[in-house]
Write a structure and sequence with these properties.
Oligomer: homodimer
Number of domains of chain A: 2
Number of helices of chain A: 13
Largest sheet of chain A: 2 strands, antiparallel
Structural class of chain A: mainly alpha
Strand order of the largest sheet of chain A: 1-2
CATH topology of the largest domain in chain A: Farnesyl Diphosphate Synthase
CATH class of the largest domain in chain A: Mainly Alpha
Order of helices and strands of chain A: HHHHEEHHHHHHHHH
């Protein structure tokens, strides 16, 4: 069984090799200007854990599919995640100047180029998947359905809807639990649920697997957010420098502000059970996914 | 033969009906918040000529395809065009407060929501095409190849590359003819070339049609830009209120600043010939496209 780092390494190697992300000639038509490539690469190589693409690849292996066929979809998921961070950090949104200890994209390249780097990564995610799909005409429908899952998760009834609500609630001091749940399910959980569903599509998995991965992805996404919120206030060393610390001070809506520390601990426990329960149909083959939630919960103990 | 307005009406009717663009419940998971829908619709319904989607539909009819099968791809092209305008107008880019006589998206909804409305429209373009493609599993490969053309035109070696170069040249006062050509080919012409190529893919047209439509799209796009630049300085009434007027005053790189008025007139004449020449393989069936360039050139006389 591969671990998270092993999958992350596979993703990183492929991201380096995707032609669109490698600098090309400056003024040649049909080639990307070096500046766009550089700004996209700057954020793409900022050292994330590659959690979302790793989970997509792990799901493909669990379902008996080929990692090679799924790799460009995994990279696309990471491009989408990265674009959302670049746009999130902009002065018109969260106005963050640091991410993972490095200056944010707009601080380095300027606001306009950062907007375009984000647009570029989102569009490039689809270019990358469509190229992979066109290279497998025998599997056109599976590829198309996988892409559709990713587009849905990232889209106007998924991640972007969550972002809109998040920004709206912050600007208008709205802090009810319904809003929190809407934001966490859409902004955070959708980008776990739908990449897993894409893996199922690539493997032509049946309805049961699709449902199980959807349930796991939702529980995982909410758990990811709840443990982050919890670690933030319980002062875990590893998290001291994170943006969330700032949020806690600023009174931003989090699981802890909504449910209290004990309430959040109970939520973490419930989501942990739900995630493991969702994995039952896969038995031993789901070891990667079981270990992933176990380790996440362990950090809060 | 339908005219531009007839195609635009078809596009407008369909844009109204696409579920993702119609407001839905506010906090329901899996539904778009009203605010996102409203901000996307605000710019989408701002009264453009629908030139790009109309040309896609006209190409499909010319090639003997079905408008119904192509309609969602046409709408996607308009969504992409609209997102690029919203992001272009942002304070970090051109900082425009008016477009087509109405306040720009960020003036109405705020900068953060405007960034997300743009992201939403770009992602929604792919969601819309992927839904249409999933509804036609018998034509999965054609749909996929059509989507890929549109993604390429809009993407990091197409429109976005042109935007990056445009912003870079303006910020650094770069004004050479190579840069101008790069920007106009990528930023402007690609979003005519690739939607036409998408039409050819949807109709399973051969290499000759693909090449002819590529040549026409390129000539058309450059002609579109050159006539706009020309009308701007020759003071055509219809264009007096346009952004380009501002550009001419600000010393922005245009065809006229690069080639002079007479040089631009000669360029218009050459591109007009090239566009008509590219249509030859289609004979009488290309009447819509011939009329389109003729009327564009007539306006400069």
């Amino acid at each position: 069984m591969r671990d998270l780092q092993a999958y992350a390494n596979i993703v990183n190697a492929r991201l380096e090799a995707i032609p669109e992300v490698v600098p090309e000639g400056r003024f040649a038509v049909g080639e990307m200007p070096w500046l766009l490539s550089e700004s996209m690469r700057y954020s793409l190589s900022a050292g994330g854990k590659r959690l979302r693409p790793a989970m997509l690849l792990a799901a493909v292996e669990m379902l008996g599919g080929s990692i090679g066929d799924a790799l460009d979809y995994a990279c696309a998921v990471e491009m989408i995640h990265t674009y959302s961070l670049i746009h999130d950090d902009l002065p018109g949104m969260d106005n963050d100047t640091l991410r993972r200890g490095r200056p944010t994209n707009h601080v380095v390249f300027g606001e306009g180029q950062a907007i375009l780097a984000g647009d570029g990564l989102l569009n490039c995610a689809f270019e990358t998947m469509l190229k992979a799909a066109a290279d497998r005409p025998d599997r056109a429908l599976d590829c198309l359905l996988a892409m559709r899952e990713i587009a849905t998760g990232a889209g106007v009834t998924g991640m972007i809807a969550g972002q809109v609500m998040d920004l709206y609630c912050e600007a208008n001091n709205i802090g009810d639990v319904n809003a929190l749940q809407y934001i966490q399910r859409n902004k955070t959980a959708c980008m776990f649920i739908y990449p897993l569903r894409a893996a199922a599509r690539l493997c032509e998995a049946g309805e049961e697997a699709l449902r199980a991965l959807t349930d796991y992805g939702r529980a995982f996404g909410l758990l990811f957010q709840a443990t982050d919120d919890l670690l933030d206030v319980t002062g875990d060393q590893e998290n001291m420098g994170k943006t969330l610390g700032k949020d806690a001070e600023s009174g931003k809506l989090t699981c802890v502000s909504a449910y209290g520390v004990e309430g959040t601990r109970a939520l973490v426990e419930r989501l942990h059970r739900e995630a493991l329960c969702a994995l039952e149909p896969f038995g031993e083959r789901a070891a990667f996914f079981a270990a992933l939630v176990d380790s996440m919960v362990d950090r809060t103990k």
